[in-house]
Specification:
The structure is a homodimer of 164-residue chains. Chain A has 164 residues and is an alpha+beta fold. The first copy, chain A, is 24% helix and 35% strand.
Chain lengths: 164, 164
Amino acid sequence: MLNKTVARNFLVITTIFLISCTTHKGETTMDTNLIFGKGNKAPGAIFTNTVWVNMLHTDEEKVFDTQVYDVVFEPAARTYWHSHPGGQILLATSGSGYYQEKGKPARKLEKGDVVAIPPEVVHWHGAAPQSEFVHIGMSTKVHEGPAAWAGPVTDEQYNEATAE
Amino acid sequence: MLNKTVARNFLVITTIFLISCTTHKGETTMDTNLIFGKGNKAPGAIFTNTVWVNMLHTDEEKVFDTQVYDVVFEPAARTYWHSHPGGQILLATSGSGYYQEKGKPARKLEKGDVVAIPPEVVHWHGAAPQSEFVHIGMSTKVHEGPAAWAGPVTDEQYNEATAE
């Protein structure tokens, strides 16, 4: 009888610890991904698959000449090909993604990577096929004008760029 | 005899789970604080207490007109009073800190907060007394010139600003 009680207690308590561990890991992962919150679903006309954009600084008053945003790409989601007349800087903060300039091999991006994209360079950025990807983006020298969009990164282009 | 074996197994296995939980939490906390790595210890002439600065984009080639850096403030560490001729944007990513403009109450900062500091506004930023604080910083319109430094935030000023 005592055996059974001890065994049952053992089962109950280890189950609680297992749930506790899982919950801690789950909460922390979510926190890491969401420093700034997901923002709004981005328009399909310039992104492929599901992307969330949180505008952190719009610079509507044109004081800083810089716009700042946080972008969450679901797996396989990416921007269309595009360029910025004033340049762009990306800071990868979570997950795995890619950056590719037209005509060059793609560069894999992980948390902590920085990409400085000079003005007029045609490129795309987005998530790896099997991983969410989060980056902060800065559009610099925005007085030069808005981004120019140049059509989707096709599945064929994306698969070739992200093949490992 | 069986009782003792079950009880001992119970003790060993719950201990393993406890250690496992603690380790997971520890690792994840460190990762969250260090998206970009700590960088270099910052000079004492413009900071009070220990601060680490990781330059993410220096813009030496003057292409983006923007410098980007990650700053880790140990508890009670802060910048001197200063201003930027081209402005500055801060993105709080971890811990608790403060931002104060000269002559105004301090604003408490937590993960996800954004501060846009217009040109020439005298201010300081740093950690809360009992918490590390990490922010990304952007110096915008750097062609306007470097920051102007105006002496330390005294312990009296800091204590008054951060009293809750």
